[in-house]
Specification:
Blueprint: E1 14-16, E2 21-23, E3 39-42, E4 46-50, E5 63-72, E6 87-91, E7 100-109, E8 116-127
Parallel strand pairs: 3-8
Antiparallel strand pairs: 1-2, 4-6, 5-7, 7-8
Length: about 170
């Protein structure tokens, strides 16, 4: 049995940690990619994708990582930061709750004949911040009782860029 390559005494042997045994037949074992659990996140927040749970049965092998955006339910592409590291990140777009983004990590070992494995993770938006819009009424500030006036809310705005609807209700003069 073994827990590391150092415990295997035959030349060229390595420890197959999954089986706890020394292997000396030149077998190259494939790493195990682990993109981490699916995530539910708030829009416009920094999201970290984490493949640090990936492993290689050849315990002394160094692993390299390559993250990539695969798809989204909205068609929106997402750019990753540090896509060549175990932990990559992106800012979740502001889209509808339930929008989902799929990412893939490819984990490759540094054997003379490199082997790779892939895993995917899905990130779903489950919360949005909603800041109140700013209402602006454009039109005359005074009118006589016999005339009609026209008001507009066209200068109103929403910090998130959401569509606005305006409704004007008349009130008796005081």
């Amino acid at each position: 049995t073994c827990a590391s390559d150092a415990e295997c005494i035959n030349p060229g042997a390595f420890c197959n940690v999954g089986a706890s045994e020394c292997v000396s037949d030149g077998t190259i074992l494939t790493p195990n990619a682990d993109a981490g659990p699916d995530q539910n996140v708030k829009a416009e927040t920094l999201v970290t994708l984490d493949a640090s749970g990936s492993s290689d049965p050849n315990v002394d092998d160094m692993l390299s990582y390559q993250w990539e955006f695969v798809s989204s339910t909205t068609g929106t592409a997402v750019a990753l930061t540090d896509a060549d590291r175990a932990q990559a990140s992106f800012t979740a777009p502001r889209e509808a709750i339930g929008s989902a983004y799929t990412f893939k990590v490819t984990v490759t070992d540094d054997d003379a004949t490199p082997a790779s494995d892939e895993d995917e993770v899905v990130v779903t938006l489950d919360e949005l911040d909603n800041t109140a819009p700013t209402a602006v009424i454009d039109g005359p500030t005074e009118a006589d009782s016999s005339g009609m006036i026209t008001l507009s809310g066209a200068s109103s705005s929403d910090p998130e860029g959401d569509a606005l609807e305006a409704e004007f209700v008349s009130a008796p003069a005081t």
